[in-house]
Amino acid sequence: MKAVIAAIALCAATAIPAAAFDPAAMDDAQKEAFGDAVREYLMTNPEVLVEAINALESRRAEQEFHNDRLLVQNNQAEIFEDGHSWVGGNPEGDITLVEFVDYRCGYCRRVSPEVEKLVQEDGNIRFILKEFPILGQESDLAARFAVATQQIAGADAYKNAHDALIEMRGAVTTESLTALAGDLGLDAQAVINRMNTEEVSEVIRKNRQLAERMAIMGTPTFIIGTEMLRGVPQAGLAAAVEQARQAAEG
Length: 250
Prior knowledge:
By secondary structure, the protein is α+β, with helices and mostly antiparallel strands.
């Protein structure tokens, strides 16, 4: 807010001849008079304050968009070809959708059906999931279970585990994960034993390091083509995919 008021004050000052306006040369009485004049102007024309706030917000959003695009550009190998993340959808798709996911994240759960529907109905999206547990011990256990399942039983088993973990209610514990492994037809003891190995820890650590470099602090975070979406866009993911396609073609 101080920045907005200062910007308005500066704009108001432009109406005063440059030779007559020197903030550093003002005495206390002149500064007080100038402050009163700015306040009176804002009280008389409050729409100016709204316009200034909107302009600053638009400028901030534009800068963040530009910065996020640079982050995607500078981390392409780790985002799209890290060698350990699950890849589904159409591996030869014309655009890639990446999701940083936490199984205990309510937003991730709510958007999951939309993501699945989009990937299936579009048919030309390469879909990558990155385990990013940030909501405590249960998140970490769930992510380790998913990664261990992939390493032991492969991509299809991982996707089944992912879907089950997204829908899982109740506490995530070693016992509940052992039961889940059995339900999924996995070697439960092998998966549980794998969860605390360095091979699994390395995957999660690399994902966290990538997220840190990209200033990702929440889930779900999506990358669509060259764009990063911090959360679910209001217009929906399908619109974001179409926009990314158009940008790539242009």
